[in-house]
Amino acid sequence: IANNNPETVSTDFDTADKLYFEPLTEEDVLNIIEKENPDGVILQFGGQTAIKLAGFLDELNVPILGTKPKQIDEAEDREKFDALMEKLDVPRPKGKAVWSLEEGLKVAESLGYPVLVRPSYVLGGQGMEITYNPVELERYLIPGFERDIKNPILIDRYLVGKEIEVDAISDGESVLIPGIMEHLERAGVHSGDSISIYPPQNISDRMKEKIWIQTEKVAIALKVVGMINIQFIEFENELYIIEVNPRSSRTVPFISKVTGVPMIDLATRAMLGEKIVDMGYGTGVYTEAELVAIKVPVFSTQKLPDVEVSLGPEMRSTGEVLGVGRTFEEALYKGFVGSGMGITKRLGSILATIKPSDQAEFLPLAKEYVNQGYRIVATEGTAKVLQEAGILVQVVKKIGEGVPNMLDLIRSGMIDMVINTPTKANDVNRDGFRIRRAAIEATIPVLTSLDTARGMLDIIKDGTIDNDIEVYNLGIVKK
Predict the structure, then answer these.
(1) Which residue would you say has higher pLDDT here, 94 or 168?
(2) Distance separating alpha carbons of residues 55 and 73, to the nearest angstrom
(3) β-sheet bridge partners, residue 351
(4) Predicted local confidence at residue 124, as pLDDT
(5) For a disulfide at 383, which of 235, 305, 340, 378, Cβ 3.0-4.6 Å?
(6) Burial level of 281, CB count in 10 A (0-12/13-18/19+)?
(7) Closest Cα to residue 281, out of 177, 151, 377, 172?
């Protein structure tokens, strides 16, 4: 809502600094309620911003359709949610809300590094970071507590596992999961930036059964009426819940399209009192589709100078596309093309700058890329590891070591893809940041997750790039 004060608002772009916007306030909401006098308010389709209004509207005695404010608070409040998970015997990564630097360091030491740290009550994973030692954690906590003295900082043990996501519909008694989604990138990448795969390609029937049991258990315990979004991690053959959102999520349009289950319609009918068993789609996990559908995020970082492009806990994508195919490789290739990822048919050169903790995992990927005819270019540290493994690699100079260096190769068009796993993101002074920015600005694909690099390799090995692409009617995705 724009501020209406004529002294501060101007349409003169020379004085655009005088034009500013304010978020919707509780007073604004109250004015809308008084004008509209609604029979009830649905919060579930307005994202996190709408859910935050639950307590305020409840104090005004405004009827909230669907999940009630008490249960919304139970899902949103860290201590209440942990207590509920304990009561239900549902595993989740150990963690705690801390109020001081000393407490934070002590908690992280007891949990074991790495840990995921984040502020309370944020959107899009803003401010989330994975820290690997006390020095990094201290560097995060000190300014974090200075910015917000009213709320704690949350510290969780970081589990390096497969992330799984479901959007479910409940009427308080029965639950329907239209589809289970598997993320291509392992946990640690914000769900909005992850490549989501439906139906899942690497989840066992036993794990799917666990997902159903835990989803039903949590939805019924929270007395969810309408939508619920749950994010899981599969780690060492165990299933952990990492987040529960008592609302719809960004994957609802995706999963609705590819399963044929009209999720918003069904959730609204449930909020108005209808039972899921009477809606014609059954309960439990809906029948899986025959074709593979993959949601690929879209980023605008090419147009935004000095903006980080690497994947992490903080969301960066500005949109998404859908790829559908008979195989995982075909669907992923379509998703990459639709998202603007420049995949070339000709063999080329890959600039690899891999952080030490990822180098062992990168070796088999590098060998496969070389076997497919690609040439690996790397700086001295990564190159030494590759050479010791018998992988042919061209050594290139780091930035500041003379010419031609990494930036020169990127800007001269001699690099066709960059695989870079950052040691630390959001630092404009680091070589990695400058490499990623140079590649993005030169419209060169930048892969900052080895999982994404593996997906790209699967496409290349499958020969999908060289095949004619078939177009499918979304109506035949489902059985």
Answers:
(1) 168
(2) 8
(3) 377, 418
(4) 45
(5) 378
(6) middle
(7) 177
Cβ proximity of 172 and 276 under 8 Å: no
182/194 Cα distance (integer angstroms): 9
Q: 464: which DSSP letter?
A: G
Residue 313 · residue 118 · CB < 8 Å: yes
Q: Which of 13-17, 50-54, 218-222, 439-443 has the lowest mean pLDDT?
A: 13-17
Instruction: Check residue 212 and give left, alpha or beta (phi > 0: left; psi -120 to 50: alpha).
Output: alpha
Compute CA distances 106 → 96, 99, 141, 142, 154, whole Å. 11, 12, 12, 14, 13
The per-residue DSSP string of 351-382 comes to EEEE-GGGHHHHHHHHHHHHHTT-EEEE-HHH
pLDDT tops 70 at residue 179: yes
Burial zone of 436 (CB within 10 Å; 0-12 exposed, 13-18 middle, 19+ buried): buried
DSSP 102: H
pLDDT band at residue 306, thresholds of 50, 70 and 90?
Answer: low
pLDDT of residue 87: 94
- 154: tokens are 């949350």
Q: Global pTM?
A: 0.84
Q: Which two tokens stand for residue 124?
A: 């899009």
Q: What is d(CA 379, CA 58) in angstroms, rounded to the nearest whole number?
A: 59
Highest mean pLDDT, choosing among 68-72, 210-214, 398-402: 210-214
Question: What band does 241 get if pLDDT is binned at 50, 70 and 90?
Answer: very high
Q: Which residues of 47-145 form beta strands (DSSP E)?
A: 64-65, 95-98, 115-119, 129-131
How far is residue 341's CA from residue 249's CA, in Å, rounded to a whole number?
Answer: 25
Number of Cβ within 10 Å of residue 450's Cβ equals 17
pLDDT score for 3: 36
Q: For 461, which DSSP code?
A: H
* Residue indicated by tokens 């529960």: 244
